[in-house]
Amino acid sequence: MKKYMLILPLVFGLAACGTPSVEDLVDDPELLSEVLAECTEKLMKGEEVKTEECQNATEAQKQILNNVMKGLLGN
Question: What is the model's pTM?
Fold first, then answer.
């Protein structure tokens, strides 16, 4: 039983540390900025940037831009 008590917090901790969703990134501009910086750094190093995290950041940027444009145009 004690083994499970030691393992369970690790399992839940790892599950909580997943890739941020598009909604998470739209709601948290600081997190979006951090993820975009990481993706840019990977790109500059020649590493793979077609990860779920980078794709979510790109989609979040698009959504934010669309929201801004809708606000400016009054649509």
Answer: 0.72
